[in-house]
## 1
Amino acid sequence: IYGTCDSKVYYQNTSQFATNLRTVLSVVNDTSSSNYSGSYSLPYPTNVTQSAYATYECRRDVLIEECHACVLKSLNAYCTNDGTRHAELVFSGMTTMFRGCYFRYSNRVNYLQALATDVLTTRYESCDTAPVAALQAGVLPALAYLRTIAPNQTGFFASVAVVDVNNVYPTVYALAQCLSFLSSAECAQCLDRTPMTNCSAPLSTYTDL
């Protein structure tokens, strides 16, 4: 869905930062863990630029095995200048977002504060295949519920199924999840920015901020 490098700064694979990063990533890639999120750090007091920090978060509706697989995929998504992997170099910071998980590492202690907030990726499927007014009658209540409930739930995750007892519109299923290092207010602000649609009646919509 999304991937970015923090800067054009590389480290040698033999550097202290690369060593610390490998240690941190080995903890992140612990397949025996039952955690859907985690943050890890390995400070290096004598040279702060050699410190390594990493965090990951998976969607709460996926299996833990799917979470591990998604994080592993993220770990293998290295940034390079020319689109090919340089085995001798390690990038100073990276952010990746796949359909099931989010992952970020950096050598900066405030790396979460530097997270880009202007990223917006939206994908629609099966547009214009349902009556607009009927479908939106289910979508609007679903989104309103998620925007109210998710910021106040553990893990900032909520899901809902809106059923029309009169069978006028189809059942609408929706879920929302914010990254756990955000505050409740930041989660609510993010959900408020989420657009509902730019096609008249999407049957399936994914939005990533």
## 2
Amino acid sequence: LARATFTRSGVHSLVVARAGYDIAGSPLRLEVTANAASPANCVVDARPLASITPLVTSSFSVTTYDRYNNLRTVGDEDIVVTARVHLAPGQAGAPPPPAYETVDGTSLYVSNGRHTASYAISTQIVTRGGQIVVDIKLNNGTLPGSPFAPHLLLVSPPIATSSQFSSMARTILVQFDQNTDRAGTFEPVECEYYFEAASAETLGDGKE
């Protein structure tokens, strides 16, 4: 009984000899294919994951390798992309709030071990201290560099078009030229949240 272990994919020539003489059929021509994909050895092109613009699809590539660093060429891997948008905690030191938006991305096999993955978010505003997290997994294993934290880019930041105090001058309503999701706030907040300290002080106490 003879055994041989190959760790490199490709075409190999296997010589089987006994007492210095090749046996019948030797050398044998063997074609070795890559083993199952190893998440730890796969490569993610992280450059497109540095930033994300709302409503604009972001695409990046994943190249798959097996445990011996052989390039996978089958394309049957299950690449899962999940993007989560987290708003800032309500108070300093508070645990992160649940994801404000969760999006499942897509992936498509191209060729030669290369996959193209894509995702998009719709949230336009992430408050100070909030973040976007992109998880990338292959066959339930986390890929190198994941989770990624892309910086949020705005195509056209909201511009204030008008502002008006209430009749009692205790609140101020600011209107913008586009939807803003209120910077992640859904109840009245103290003016210090939006204004510089010097400006907020001129409004007096109890302003919101």
